[in-house]
Amino acid sequence: MSLELNGNPENHQTSEDEKKKVLVYGRQNMFGRKMILTSETEITAANVAKVISDAYNTHLQNRGDIDYLWNYYKGKQPSLYRQRELRPEISKHVVENRANQIVDFKTGYLLGKPITYVSSTGGDDTDDVSAVIGKLNKAMTNIGKRTKDKELVEWCMIAGVGYRYVVQNMATRRKAKFNLFTLDPRDTFVIRANDYSKRVLAGVNYVTDESENVTFTIYTEDYVFTLKNGANKPKVAKNSFGVIPIIEYPANSARLGAFEIVLSMLDAINDFDCMRLEAVENFVQSLLVLYNCQVEEGTTADTIRAAGMILLKSLGDNKADVKNLSEQLNQTENQTLKDDMWNTVLQIVGMPSQGDGSTGDSSNNGAVVLKNGWQGAETRAQAFEDMFQLPEMEMLDVVSVLCDGIGGKDSFTFDPADIEIKFPRHNYDNLLSKSQTLVTMLASDKIHPKCAYEASGLFADSEEAYQLAMEWYEKIQAQMKQADKEPEVKVNE
């Protein structure tokens, strides 16, 4: 069977009229990205063309939504294309890009400090596991994982889903045997089994050339297929590592973007801003009404505008008069309406309000977290962390296989089951309380020091802090023992 696609990724709308309609009125019926499923239990060279053809059609629907959300995030929003029927010369096109604000806040709040790994084990081998995890954290720093995490989380917040690609690192100077790349979700998808497990059968990435030919690269646990549109047979290569290197990161179970659920409200705020500016313009350029008068012969509206004045003649006993036909909006009431819409958006997406400035400086940082919606922001962040855990562990599984399979002097092995993922965020507040907690726990002989460092929340990377503390402690103990062994020098009087 050959691969025949029923659409093109660069032209997934049905017509130019449909494209224009999307720009003017917005994209309708967006309820999260669809999970791509197949009834096949295994993807092989015999059925890969049919599986990809079916999956691609579902992917195009997701791609259309993602492309719209990506452009919306960048500021290409329906208010730029709105049309005014009456007096189109004063039509205003304004974008108040709140979608960008929502994504940037959530990304920054989640990744204020880099994601780190700590040991989840205890016992006699704790120090050995911590040392290995310290190497893993250093390797992640060397490949710039913090920047790549930001790219990934941004896609999750915009599109509702993100994809990461794990590959063998050929750049030996970085001393890391692997590398991570964030893939564009418009060109990437995974295929899952249509059963209770929803296990991943394949990870797919494709490119489109200048002739609009699509080339797919399909990764399964056993093989890597390369398949071109219209080809009869795929190219087949052995997957030497036995893992799927493309990992899917859903933002939530519905795969909704952070601002997708309030698109209509954001469009309403944009339209409201446009109409307010049009109202001001309409007041400034109000219509001129002539009462009970006649103007000189040959006078036109353009003549009046150019001269800035007119000469009037009264009709009979009726006094001639000129007035501007205008009506101002009540800006106070309008601002109240706009504030209400924006506060509704904040509540729905789980963002804190900016406050009214009345809280003062007397509130401590811990109290502020519970005020003005910050608790809601923390709850949403924790929910995203829970969704992030499973794919991140899948990524670590792939990394562990690459580290085991490559070898070399800079290689190391680890068990992903020994790792716990940490999102440090609030290590900057309540420092005194956290310091006291750390000191109290370290004074107990029933609490392992590593647990104390993790529980205190004082350090962004508690694993590194624990390792440094133990090295420092051993150094101090060695110096004290050496001082005790040195003979006392007596000075003759």
Written account of the structure:
Among the domains are: 16-261, no CATH class; 287-325, no CATH class; 430-487, no CATH class. The strands form five sheets. The chain has a six-stranded mixed sheet with strand order 1-5-6-7-8-9, with helices on one face. Strands 4-3-10 form a three-stranded antiparallel sheet. A two-stranded antiparallel sheet has the order 2-15. The longest helix is centred in the last third of the chain and has 33 residues, at 374-406. Strand 7 and strand 8 form a beta hairpin. The radius of gyration is 32 Å and the shape is flat. The protein is built from 13 helices and 15 strands. With 493 residues, the protein is an alpha+beta fold.
Summary keywords:
three-stranded antiparallel β-sheet; flat; 493 residues
Topology:
Elements: H1 16-25, E1 37-38, H2 48-74, H3 98-110, E2 116-119, H4 126-142, H5 145-159, E3 161-168, E4 178-183, E5 188-193, E6 200-208, E7 214-219, E8 223-228, E9 235-238, E10 246-250, H6 263-284, E11 287-291, E12 293-294, H7 301-307, E13 313-314, E14 321-325, H8 331-349, H9 365-369, H10 374-406, E15 419-422, H11 431-442, H12 449-456, H13 462-485
Parallel strand pairs: 1-5
Antiparallel strand pairs: 2-15, 3-4, 3-10, 5-6, 6-7, 7-8, 8-9, 11-14, 12-13
